[in-house]
Write a structure and sequence with these properties.
2 copies of one chain form a homodimer.
Chain A lengths: L16 H15 L6 H7 L4 H7 L3 H22 L5 H18 L2 H12 L5 H16 L6 H19 L10 H18 L7 H5 L1 H4 L4 H19 L5
The first copy, chain A, binds a DNA duplex (30 and 30 nucleotides) through helix 2 and helix 3.
DNA sequence: TGTCAAGCTGGAACGACGTTCCAATGCTCT
DNA sequence: AGAGCATTGGAACGTCGTTCCAGCTTGACA
């Protein structure tokens, strides 16, 4: 059977938008934001820059697609597990995004860029929907859905964004050491601020040392949840 | 007296870091983020690109300086007025940043970038300090200062960032029309989402139409303030 | 006042990037 | 087998951030 006519290994997987986006995410993860180049991407895919443009409009769209892919995966993981309570559900969504940003440090900047350039593209509704469902399940009256969900989403994006750089690129254990050193450095820097201009920041300099990002992040969520419960009479 | 020997108009104002940063902000405001070029900046300052590098390390530092300058001005305005209550103080800081981002749309992306690249540079402490003072005045126990202030800061940055693109570049009245059209478009787009994937987002599509950004922003702040009061027993 | 080193200027040049262009190649029908 | 079209990938273009360096200005000292 002449199956081996002339295609021993199919030359290679054909190019596709998905393969390109996936390679872009990989490149962003490994070499960082500045490392994503159409030339590097082309080499990674064993092709030329021109071929990529057949599937993708430009770098802006490519970054948007990479961001969307990662966010979609993050909220999909959360949606899979059914939480015990709406509060747990909100925490799950929040931590899903938190972890995604930790895993893909470039995501923080990209999220901000996507959301501020086209606030209601494909990324925002994904996050908004995930949080909103839990807000509804919480028993928030319908008239307050938008306000409550927006507040949670904004807090999550703001907090997760800032915490992005706190995690080193290292693996399992070494990063903890780096992190301790990093927090020590921040704490020390804060203590050397001008006492007249920064009395408060100096006063909390010690609290920053050794604090747990994840815990702080969840404490903020708890604050907002408490606020929602306090202000909006729940219907359950 | 021969004061007019040879210097009728001093050739020109000498280059300085401040002049460069100020020109950069102006350029960012007028031609947008992509329009800030060392060549354009040089032309604006009637000099060459090389001269700029004597005062500034590179584009990254220039953007950081521009961001810092604008943020410093924003929180300085707020600090000038003495608020009636700590709550009013927090609202003042928040609205100060909100307005700054509205006035300088590029600020949203830059804030996110600055905060995620070097989370505790010069920008974060400025904001942190402004909010923190009000939190302290609010009577929050010292052990919760960091948590409460961080939560507020993250919400403010997250919310202000997303609202940046909502305001058109136009002037006083025309932007309101643009804004109404914009919200209509968003609302319409949300209603066309997949009913299976986006039931919640579709349900609130009407609430987005005609909502007031500023009001929503303050509603979120109120939510967090209520949460703080609910969770942390105030000492006043 | 003349001289010299240091601070500062600005234009030319370099390498890398995003993007465009297009000849060559594979694939799918008839 | 051949025509037509989708797809490829490498070369080329213009612009960017950045570097380099020859000249200018300035202020201190002799």
């Amino acid at each position: 059977m002449a199956t081996r006519t002339r295609r021993p290994e199919r030359r290679q997987e054909p190019l596709s938008r998905e393969r390109i986006v996936s390679a872009a995410v990989e490149l962003l993860d490994t070499v960082g934001e500045g490392g994503l180049t159409f030339r590097a991407l082309a080499e990674h895919l064993a092709t030329g820059p021109g071929a990529i443009y057949w599937h993708v409009e430009g770098k802006t769209e490519l970054l948007a697609a990479a961001t969307d892919a990662v966010v979609a995966a993050a909220v999909a993981v959360e949606a899979a597990e059914s939480p015990d309570s709406p509060q747990d559900g909100i925490r799950a969504v929040a931590l899903g995004l938190f972890d995604a940003i930790e895993e893909h440090p470039w995501l923080a900047t990209q999220l901000a860029t996507q959301l501020s350039r086209s606030p209601w593209g494909t990324v925002a509704p994904r996050i908004f929907e995930s949080i909103g469902r839990q807000v509804r399940a919480l028993g928030v009256p319908e008239g307050s859905w938008f306000t409550a969900t927006s507040a949670l989403m904004h807090y999550i994006l703001g907090a997760a964004g800032q915490n992005a750089a706190n995690t080193a690129s290292a693996g399992t254990l070494g990063s903890d050491v780096d992190r301790a050193e990093f927090l020590d450095a921040v704490s020390a820097a804060w203590k050397e601020l001008d006492p007249d201009d920064y009395p408060f920041t100096r006063a909390v300099a010690d609290q920053v040392r050794g604090h747990d990002d994840r815990e702080q992040f969840l404490a903020g969520i708890a604050l907002i949840l408490a606020g929602i419960t306090a202000i909006h009479p729940l219907t359950t």
